[in-house]
TNase-like domain-containing protein
Amino acid sequence: MGCRNSKAADTKENHESQDHQQSRSAATPSLTTKAFTSVPPATSQPYILCAVYDGDTIRVRRPQEPKGREHELRLRFLGIDTPELKEQEPFALEAKNHLLELLTGSIHPPKGEIGATVFITPPATGSAVDKYDRMLGIVYVAHEGSMVCVNESLLRKGLARLYEPTPNQLAPDVHRAFEDAQKDARKHKRAIWSLTDEKATVYTTTNGKAYHLKDCEHLRGGGRAGTVGSALDRGLAACRTCHA
Ligand SMILES: [Zn+2]
């Protein structure tokens, strides 16, 4: 880990100077775009990983701060939503374990502070924290010699869904990469998508961001019928009230 990170720091300057010529693979290193993945995005900052809560929430601290709970920040992964561990939703544990493996190399992290270095990119626009005062960000980590975008990896494995309560917080190229990752997971029916019937009927409204079951309160008696697949294709997400 330390080795890779110091290598990353050495080549960061070079990375920044090339930034303008790099296409989207530069801005969104991932498991599948191996050509350019050895350094984190120029907009990211290093943090020390303290703990992993679940598939999309971790605790971190700035490297210049000393160890200690009072210096730790809760981070909610931007642009994705993983199944809830507390509610024992399917694939919640798999999502957490995938996160642990990427970030620590093991699903059994050491006791106390984990100590791995992660790189975090803040939202492209809008607030840097959510309504629960959690920092929002895209997380990158050095893994097997590549810089991996953890948010995208969870999407690609079918262990997270695209989730954007506030528009435009993902940069356009990152947004496209996340959409592609989810499409790939749906196409291969990975994890949570293995449980999704894309032909099932759901209901949508003209300006809504979610698709619903027929009786959902958010439809207020209205809504147009369509399939889950077509709603997902339009970038809509399952309603968090009716769990369509
Ligand atoms: Zn609903």
Summary: The chain is about 25% helix and 20% strand. The chain has two domains: 2-192, 197-238.
